[in-house]
Amino acid sequence: MNPPRIAVWLLRGLLAAPQRDWVEGDLAEEFAIRQSRAWYWRQVVWSAVPLVRMQARAANWEASLLAVFVAAAGPVLLLDGFWSLILSQVPLKAGVARGMDYLAAGLWLAGVAGALAGFACRGRRAIFLAPLAVLFALLALGAITGVTPFWYRALITATLGAGVAAGAAMPEGEKR
User: Which three-class secondary structure string do you get for the chain?
Assistant: First the structure.
């Protein structure tokens, strides 16, 4: 009898390589003796929070959160500040509505900043940071003064989250 496959996948997703082998090996030995799928699930579920906490301590989450926060808030606030500067310099020639060039610049900045933040955090379970990037982007979009439609906010947050996930998925270079 084998351990529950989904529980094994969950356990593998929560742990880094060295700890994963040790914990998975210990649970496999105990499972061979007990032969209880419920026991295995109970061990994985009760271990999930301490395992995530242990990984967070080992991964230097402060630097990761800072990178994602800067990537989320930076492009949005930078573009809004630039647009406000343009409006203050040329008040009669520029309207409050933003054009497609503003959208293109925002999407490009959000994608690049997100990918850079994800790349900087890769190997540290950065895939969990993508939802935080979306949250930070929504907070930054709420702080800007300009009129932005819902679809603009949705595209920016989706691009940022995808950028963080893509950057985190990039393979690490060879270690020498």
Answer: CCCCHHHHHHHHHHCCHHHHHHHHHHHHHHHHHHCCHHHHHHHHHHHHHHHHHHHHHHCCHHHHHHHHHHHHHHHHHHHHHHHHHHHHHCCCCCCCCCCHHHHHHHHHHHHHHHHHHHHHHCCCCHHHHHHHHHHHHHHHHHHCCCCCCHHHHHHHHHHHHHHHHHHHHCCCCCCC
